[in-house]
Each structure stands twice: as C-alpha cells, then as structure tokens.
Amino acid sequence: MERFNNSPGAKVFFGSIRACGEGISLVGASRIVILDVHLNPSVTRQAIGRAFRPGQQKKVFVYRLVSADSPEEEDNSICFKKELISKMWFEWNKYCGDRAFEVEEVLLKECGDLFLESPLLGEDVKALYKR
Length: 131
Description:
This protein has 131 residues and is mainly alpha-helical. The protein is built from five helices and two strands, in the order αβαβααα. The two termini are 30 Å apart.
C-alpha cells in the first residue's frame, strides 16, 4: 500500500470493493475503475473515498464498468436509485439547487480525462472483450 501511494513506479493497484472499503488509504490513485456492483451504495462510496480525501487538490476520476443487458446492469440501476433516494431524503435542503451535487451523465469526449480520450484505449478495451 505504501509503495502504491508513494512510488511513481507503482501504476496499478487491484482490490475488491470490500477489501478497499475500510482501513486503507489509496491517495496515490488518480483513477478508480469499479468492476463489481455492491448492492449497498455506501460500501462503494466508502471504497471510492479511500482515494479522495478532504482538502485534496488532485482530481480523481471514478469509472464503473457494467456489462450491458446483464443482471449486473440491473443491480447497478438499483444502487443508483438507492443513492438518489438517500441524497434526496437526507441532503435535500443542504444541497438543493447546488449544481456541484447534481448527478448527470458525462459524455466521453466531454469528461476531460485524456486517458479515456486516447484512441489506443478503445482498441485495448475491444481486445479485452475478444478474449
């Protein structure tokens, strides 16, 4: 963990949402790719929080990869709805009207992440799915 956070040579850290959700710090991460869907959105939120700490200036990009037309896609939809209901119920007055807390879809070309905009990444993803 220390090597990942402090060494410029450490580029990738693999961990499940459950393993990365408690007791660790991943402040060396600039991107988080979530490959599994947990039915409790707070568990996922906590895992994401391991890479982003209050007062941090560095951008952290979070991606969720979900297979289309799969049970996983349905689980992800349920989790998204749970998260929205929770925010509306507990944080409505605090964040109502604050654009920084609105959930919106971001198109790939508009996200500002040069890593994702690379044409080579698209080819790599296609190659993974062919395997």
